[in-house]
Design a protein that fits this description.
- The chain is 48% helix and 7% strand.
- The chain is mostly helical.
- The protein has a domain at 1-68.
- The protein has a two-stranded antiparallel ribbon.
- A hairpin with a 5-residue loop joins strand 1 and strand 2.
- The protein is elongated, with a radius of gyration of 25 Å.
Length: 153
């Protein structure tokens, strides 16, 4: 089923129809190595593959998971869970809880990074008559000395 893509301009400058969701090659999907891979489909005389609605739904599922930064191995697991709807939600909940914990760890690391950068930024007074305090801080940190963003313990 072709999909209308505003991001791919046709001859008239309007969006053109393509068999690829959002212009992305479907080859990446084959790397997921999941049952019912999209890589095994008939080709049109033009060489393009033709996909059914269920394949587009599967791609949308994958794209949504990836937009939530779910790693590909977990996407593969979620697709397997979706293929067996009689399974308990406990496995899906566990997978999502692990992903949430990973995101929370990353947020903590980003907050610490933000504090370090803000401390570093406060070192600059904008006065060009002396060396840049931020660059000086980078230099002293390179020499393993305490700096504004990495105070001595």
């Amino acid at each position: 089923m072709p999909v209308k893509h505003p991001g791919h301009a046709g001859i008239d400058g309007q969006g053109c129809e393509t068999d690829r969701p959002h212009g992305r090659s479907l080859g990446w999907h084959a790397r997921l190595q999941v049952p019912d891979s999209l890589a095994e489909h008939e080709r049109e005389p033009s060489g393009y593959r033709r996909y059914a609605t269920r394949h587009l739904q599967r791609l949308q599922f994958i794209r949504h998971c990836r937009s939530l930064d779910v790693p590909l191995p977990d996407v593969r697991d979620l697709l397997a869970f979706a293929a067996a709807p009689d399974r308990s939600c406990a496995q899906v909940n566990t997978l999502l809880d692990e992903h949430i914990a990973t995101v929370q760890q990353r947020l903590k690391a980003l907050c610490a990074l933000e504090k370090q950068l803000l401390a570093l930024r406060k070192q600059c007074d904008g006065d060009t008559s002396h060396p840049c305090a931020i660059l000086e801080s980078f230099m002293t940190a390179a020499e393993e000395h305490a700096c504004a963003c990495h105070p001595a313990a």
